[in-house]
Amino acid sequence: MQRQSDKHTPDPAATYARQTSAELPKMTDKEFDETIQLAISTFGKEAQTRMLFEEMAELQDALCKFARGRTSPGHVCEEIADVMIMCLQMAQIYGSASVEQWTHLKMHRLRHRLNSHPQ
Fold it and tell me: 22 and 72 in contact (C-beta within 8 Å)?
């Protein structure tokens, strides 16, 4: 019997006709950062915050559909990417150094909990 977690695959291929990252030239770190900043300055902080809410809802919808067998892992990955891009914009808006510090702290805390968790 297949467990739910067995349905997840690392790096699944998208099953729909969209351009994949393998077909795109790699963006430099500078281009990446400039694009994040350009999105914020073009659309505004408030609009990008609302867009984050929309993208999070789309991810939630994709995960629910995946759990019911109604979408692909590739679609879930696409929605994760959208949320991550919006979160990077939020980090830029609210303070990327602070977000990085909090992330570091929380990852250490998670690691400690996992190491302390009985197998």
Answer: no
**Each residue's pLDDT tens digit, 82-92:** 999 999 999 99
Alpha-carbon distance 7 to 107, whole Å?
26
Per the CB < 8 A criterion, the answer to whether 74 and 12 are in contact is yes
- Whether the model pTM is above 0.90: no
- Cα–Cα dist 34/43, whole Å: 14
Mark residue 69 as left, alpha or beta (left: phi above 0; alpha: psi -120 to 50; beta: remaining): left
For Cα atoms 3, 114, 109, give the angle at the middle one, nearest 5 degrees: 130
Q: Which residues of 86-112 are buried (b: 16+ CB within 10 A; e: fewer)?
A: bebbbbbbeeeeebeeeeeeeeeeeee
